[in-house]
Specification:
The protein is built from 5 helices and 5 strands. It is α/β, with parallel strands linked by helices. The protein has a single domain, classed as HUPs (Rossmann fold, 3-Layer(aba) Sandwich), CATH 3.40.50.
């Protein structure tokens, strides 16, 4: 392969994701690629463990709005740099939605931040990046916040 045409950035709006976004923007600019920015509202965080008196749909809408702001920030930065950017917010299981989106747009590269959790925190929380790396067909670039 001599370059990338479609780069997918998965973001959660964190500093770590912003660092990954910088790499994704640089790659998209270098290869004149389209940058797809995806935010996934984690559906597993809502519902079963949420107290019944809490309006789950209101929380979901709030999380969607947060995700849209994170996506818009990157897409606007891309536009300012002359990079074609496409954004989407989905609700689901993050690694599954990232993989499905990447497959749907025929991604050449996935870029994601990784928090670098280890030990019990990684075991309990799992790692979206680790699952994407293991299951993705295209190459995956993981970026630590310090990078």
């Amino acid at each position: 392969m001599t370059g990338y045409e479609t780069v997918v950035l998965a973001t959660d709006g964190s500093d770590c994701a912003r660092a990954a976004g910088e790499h994704a923007l640089e790659l998209a600019a270098t290869y004149d690629a389209t940058l797809h920015v995806l935010y996934v509202v984690d559906a597993t965080d809502l519902g079963l463990t949420t107290p019944s008196e809490v309006d789950v749909e209101e929380i979901r809408d709030s999380l969607r709005a947060k995700g849209q702001r994170a996506v818009d920030e990157v897409v606007e930065t891309a536009a300012d740099a002359g990079i074609e950017g496409v954004g989407e917010v989905r609700v689901g299981i993050p690694h599954e939605e990232i993989l499905a989106y990447a497959d749907g747009v025929d991604a050449d590269l996935l870029v994601l931040g990784t928090h670098g959790r280890t030990g019990i925190r990684r075991y309990l929380l799992g790692s979206v990046a680790e699952r994407v790396v293991r299951l993705a067909d295209p190459p995956v670039l993981t970026v630590h916040e310090e990078s």
